[in-house]
Design a protein that fits this description.
By secondary structure, this protein is mostly beta strands. The protein has two helices and 30 strands.
C-alpha cells in the first residue's frame, strides 16, 4: 500500500447513511434536494501543535438546473452506537489545496465543490457509528454561461494540474492540488471527440511503493510531497528532489540515482514539464511575481541547458522546444521588455517581440519547430490585452508578426495557475486551470485563424 501524507490517511471509521438537510436562509426550513454530498471520507491529520485532527472530506454537487448556491456552510453531527450525539463540526467549501472559498463563492448548476468539516469529538473513547452532514446555502441566479470561441471545447470544470497526451486523439489528466503527490490526484481519460471522461488509475501510481520511497529518502509520509516524484511519460526513469533540494533522476525502482543539479536549497520546485524522449524543464519560484529560474535536462541526468544560476531568469515559466535546447522567456533584457528566444548549446539570444509578461501563473509559451529547418517557426503565447483579458496569440518567426487568435477562458487570481500541453501532431492544445474558474479546455488550432496570416 502506498504511504500517504497525513492529510490523506483515512481514519478507520464507518460512515453509515449520511443525512443531508438543506435549508434556504431566506425561508422557513424546507428540504432542498438540489445539493447532494458525494465521496464522503473521514480523515485524520496532525495540527500545528502535534494534536490529532479529524476532518470530514467530501464533494458537494449542485444537481439543480436552475439555481446556483452561495453563502454555503456545512455542519456535522457525530453519533455513537447508541445514536447519541458525541461531537460536531463546522466547515465550508474549499479549493483543491484545502483553502476555504469566500462566502460569495457560487456553486453553479451541475458543478461540484470540495468541502472540509473539522470535527470535535466530546468523548475521546467513544465508538463512532456515523456522521451526519447538514448544509445551509442561499439560492441565487446562476451567472450567465460564457460562450466559448469556435474551436474551444470544455472537457472538465475541475482544477486540472497535469495533462498527458497518450496519442493524437487521447489524453489523460489529473485533478487536485498541484502540491500533492501525483498519486493523490484524481485521474481521468478522454478523447478529442469530447467523450465522457473515464476515471482511471495512473499507470505509474502502483510503482510508488514503500521500497521506492525509502530509496528516494522519502520514507516518512511528510517527505513524500517534498520529494516531487515525477515519472518520464515515455521512459523508465523518474526525477525527484532530496531533502536539501538537489534534483536527481533514478530508475523506476529508485535505484541507479544520478544527480542533475545541486545548490538548489534556497529554491522552491514548482513544476516538471516533460518533452519527448525523457527531456524535461524544471522550474522554480517562490510566489506570484517572483522571477522563474530553470534548467533543462534528460531523465538520464544529461544536462541540456546551463545550471539555473547561469540561465537568464524569466518573468514567466519558460516554454521549451521538443528537444529542450530552445526556450522562450520573458522579461527586461538588452533590448527592453518583451519575449526572447534562447538556444542553450550555442548561446544564441534574440528578442522576438515587445510585450508585458502576464506573470508566472500563466501558461508557458508553446514552441513549434519546422521539421525541414529544425528551427522554431511559430510560438503560441497567452497574453493579456489592454483590458486585462487573457488572449491566445501566435508569433510567426517567418514574418516576425504577433497575431491575435482568440480569447482564452482564463480568470486567474495570483495563487491560481494555468498551463497547457500541445498534442503530438501539434494540432490541438489542452489548456488547464486551477482555482475559482478551474477547468480543462481543448483548443483546435486548425479551426483558429492561421498563424501565418
Amino acid at each position: 500500500m502506498i504511504p500517504r501524507l497525513p492529510r490523506f490517511a483515512a481514519l478507520l471509521l464507518t460512515l453509515m447513511v449520511t443525512s443531508i438537510s438543506l435549508f434556504a436562509a431566506d425561508a422557513s426550513p424546507s428540504l432542498l434536494p438540489a445539493l447532494v454530498t458525494e465521496d464522503l471520507e473521514v480523515v485524520e491529520s496532525v495540527g500545528v501543535f502535534g494534536q490529532p485532527i479529524q476532518t470530514v472530506h467530501g464533494k458537494l454537487r449542485n444537481v439543480s438546473s436552475e439555481s446556483a448556491y452561495t453563502d454555503i456552510s456545512l455542519r456535522a453531527e457525530i453519533y455513537d452506537t447508541d445514536e447519541a450525539v458525541i461531537g460536531e463540526g463546522f466547515g465550508v467549501p474549499v479549493d483543491a489545496c484545502g483553502a476555504g472559498w469566500l462566502p460569495d463563492y457560487r456553486l453553479a448548476p451541475g458543478e461540484s465543490a470540495r468541502f472540509e468539516i473539522a470535527l470535535e469529538v466530546f468523548e475521546t473513547d467513544a465508538q463512532i457509528r456515523h456522521v451526519d452532514v447538514f448544509v445551509t446555502a442561499l439560492a441565487t441566479e446562476p451567472q450567465a454561461a460564457v460562450a466559448l470561441p469556435e474551436g474551444f471545447t470544455r472537457l472538465s470544470d475541475q482544477p486540472v494540474v497535469e495533462v498527458e497526451w497518450l496519442d493524437e486523439v487521447r489524453l489523460r489528466y489529473g485533478t487536485g492540488c498541484e502540491r500533492h503527490p501525483f498519486m493523490a490526484w484524481e485521474w481521468m481519460e478522454t478523447g478529442i471527440e469530447a467523450t465522457a471522461p473515464v476515471p482511471v488509475e495512473h499507470p505509474r501510481a502502483a510503482a510508488v511503493t514503500p521500497a521506492l520511497l525509502e530509496r528516494l529518502g522519502a520514507g516518512e509520509p511528510a517527505e513524500v510531497e517534498h520529494a516531487f516524484v515525477r515519472f518520464a511519460p515515455d521512459g523508465e526513469r523518474l526525477v525527484f528532489q532530496n531533502d536539501i533540494n538537489d534534483l536527481l533522476t533514478a530508475g523506476a525502482d529508485g535505484r541507479f540515482q544520478r544527480v542533475v543539479q545541486r545548490a538548489l536549497h534556497n529554491r522552491t520546485l514548482q513544476g516538471i514539464y516533460w518533452q519527448p524522449e525523457g527531456r524535461f524543464l524544471a522550474y522554480y519560484f517562490g510566489g506570484y511575481g517572483d522571477p522563474v529560474v530553470y534548467f533543462t535536462a534528460t531523465a538520464e541526468a544529461q544536462p541540456i541547458s546551463a545550471s539555473p544560476a547561469n540561465n537568464r531568469p524569466s518573468q514567466i515559466v519558460p516554454g521549451i522546444s521538443r528537444d529542450a535546447n530552445r526556450a522562450v522567456i520573458a522579461g527586461t533584457f538588452g533590448e527592453g521588455e518583451g519575449y526572447y528566444i534562447t538556444v542553450f548549446n550555442n548561446g544564441f539570444f534574440e528578442k522576438l517581440f515587445d510585450g508585458a509578461p502576464p506573470g508566472n501563473n500563466y501558461p508557458a509559451p508553446l514552441l513549434v519547430t519546422d521539421p525541414a529547418t529544425e528551427l522554431v517557426s511559430r510560438i503560441y503565447v497567452a497574453l493579456d490585452d489592454e483590458s486585462g483579458a487573457a488572449r491566445l496569440m501566435c508569433f510567426n518567426r517567418d514574418d516576425d508578426t504577433l497575431r491575435d487568435l482568440a480569447p482564452l477562458p482564463l480568470e486567474l487570481a495570483e495563487e491560481e495557475r494555468a498551463a497547457w500541453w500541445i498534442s503530438p501532431d501539434e494540432r490541438k492544445v489542452a489548456l488547464a486551470a486551477t482555482g475559482l474558474h478551474s477547468g480543462l479546455w481543448l483548443i483546435d488550432l486548425e479551426v483558429l485563424p492561421d498563424c501565418a496570416g
